[in-house]
Amino acid sequence: MQRWLKHLLRAPNVLYTCGIGGVFGHRFMQLTHTGRRTGKKYRVVVEVVKYSPITGEAIVMSGFGRQSGWFRNVTADTPTWVNFGHGPVLADHRVLDADEGAQALRDYERRMRLARPLIRSVLGRLAGFPYRDTEATRRRLVQVLPLIAFTPHR
After folding, report:
1. Angle CA(113)–CA(136)–CA(134) in degrees, nearest 5?
2. SS3 of residue 3 by DSSP
3. What are phi and psi of 61, to 5 degrees?
4. Coil, strand, or helix at residue 11?
5. SS (H, E, C) 99-148
6. For 52-110, how does the pLDDT look when each residue is reduced to its tens digit (9 = 90+)?
7. Rounded CA gap, 121 and 94, in Å?
């Protein structure tokens, strides 16, 4: 990834660090994860595909796939916190199966009606194949770009 793009993608972390990440509402969240080998804490801001105000569950997509650093750290069962702008909360996680992931993605596309063509184009490029509005490609996409749900730790 090019250096300028890395800096651009990290910029929203500054808002959370300054205590004003709440401007994103539940559309984005800051994810603090622990390095599986280093034990260091890392922060990344991710887009929320689906949020439940009842359970506090937030579903996000690993846009760079299963090899993404944050995805690998979280699925190694290291401590993870989520922050919607009101301070970090310890969270549990689960990787969605193909059926639940496809449903969450379908609902997201329905809500993002105006941006749908752009979303499909970007997701297709990230996944490495043309992404169309079919159940088969949606299920294939969530296998390549998995969705993971975070819920506040009880």
Report:
1. 30
2. helix
3. -110, 140
4. coil
5. HHHHHHHHHHHHHCHHHHHHHHHHHHHHHCCCCCCCHHHHHHHHHHCCEE
6. 999 999 999 999 999 999 999 999 999 999 999 888 999 999 999 999 999 999 999 99
7. 27
Are 89 and 83 in contact by the 8 Å Cβ rule? The answer is yes
Type of residue found at 126: L
| β partners of residue 151 | 92
Q: Give the residue among 151, 152, 150 at the shortest CA–CA distance from 62.
A: 150
Q: Tokens 């390095």, residue?
A: 35
Rg of the chain (C-alpha set):
15
pLDDT above 80 for 1: no
Give the pair of three-digit tokens for residue 13. Answer: 């972390």
Structure tokens at 51: 């949020």
**Can you tell me the distance from the alpha carbon of 128 to that of 123, in angstroms, rounded to the nearest whole number?**
8
10: its two tokens: 């990290």
Sign of CA dihedral 64, 60, 117, 11: negative
